[in-house]
Specification:
Mean pLDDT: 76
Structural class: mainly alpha
Radius of gyration: 45 Å
Number of strands: 0
Order of helices and strands: HHHHHHHHHH
Shape: elongated
Largest sheet: none
CATH topology of one domain: Serine Threonine Protein Phosphatase 5, Tetratricopeptide repeat
CATH class of one domain: Mainly Alpha
Helix content: over 70%
Strand content: under 5%
Length: 264
């Protein structure tokens, strides 16, 4: 009996020892499992969003840089336009002084000291010829040709300027600078005393190029010629046309003053 009891006790001890050494199952926290799973599944989906934001920021930087370049180029273009306008205004003022027989600076090889009214044309009169159709020329070549003729005006080489402007209008009858070339050609003709050709080309400016910035000024100069020729009726008619057709311009204001001076 005592042996049986000892055997039972030994068996129980062995079972207890085995139970103590068996590992316990892991503890699962159900309250945090759902959130953890959601975070794990959500984390990878943020990568495309971050990449897109990075690209947007890069594009915004490029746009700012392009805007800066555009503003800089606009400033440079405005400066060039202003410089060109100042040059034109200066040359126009010089020609006006010559037209009234006044001296400007040093005399040129064409005897500018002699009053315009007493000066005879030293150039060969070029009669307008029908302009044949020509092959289109490059815009770069047109600009070079105009600048070359205009440089002759600046240097008071009027005979050469007349030749160059006539050639320019023959080559570029409807070019980008044709209105300006016609205006300066008329102005030079006026300076050298060739009034008939001056009248012809001043009229060509506002009839062929009515939207040109030189149109109103050309009409004003033609009206001044008529007034100098004592053709007051014709002059008054043109002054009135300038004030109506080119209202608000400098030429229109000058025409109004001329009308007040000679009487409406």
């Amino acid at each position: 009996m005592q042996k049986l009891f000892s055997l039972i006790l030994a068996t129980a001890s062995i079972s207890l020892a085995v139970a103590e050494t068996r590992p316990l199952p892991p503890i699962i926290n159900n309250s945090s499992y759902a959130n953890g799973a959601s975070y794990a599944s959500r984390a990878p989906s943020n990568q495309p969003m971050l990449q897109m934001l990075g690209r947007i920021d890069s594009l915004q930087t490029e746009v700012r840089q392009l805007r800066g370049l555009l503003e800089q180029q606009k400033h440079e273009i405005d400066s060039l336009k202003k410089r060109q306008q100042n040059i034109y205004a200066d040359i126009n003022a010089r020609l006006q002084h010559l037209e009234t027989g006044k001296m400007i600076g040093a005399t040129s090889h064409e005897n500018l000291a002699v009053p315009v009214a007493q000066r005879q044309p030293t150039h060969k009169v070029v009669k307008p010829k029908p302009k044949p159709k020509k092959k289109p020329r490059s815009k770069a070549g047109e600009k070079v040709a105009f600048d070359k003729a205009f440089a002759s005006v600046r240097k008071s080489k009027y005979t050469l300027a007349i030749k160059q402007f006539n050639q320019f209008l023959n080559d570029y009858p409807t070019g980008e600078y044709s209105d300006n070339a016609t205006f300066w050609l008329a102005s030079v003709y006026k300076v050298v005393g060739d009034v008939p050709h001056a009248k012809q080309y001043f009229q060509s400016v506002f009839t062929q190029f009515p939207k040109s910035e030189k149109a109103a000024l050309s009409m004003l100069k033609l009206a001044d010629i008529y007034l100098a020729e004592n053709k007051k009726s014709k002059a008054k008619q043109m002054y009135a046309q300038i004030t109506a057709q080119y209202a608000g311009t400098t030429s229109a204001h000058m025409a109004e003053k001329k009308l007040q001076k000679i009487g409406l």
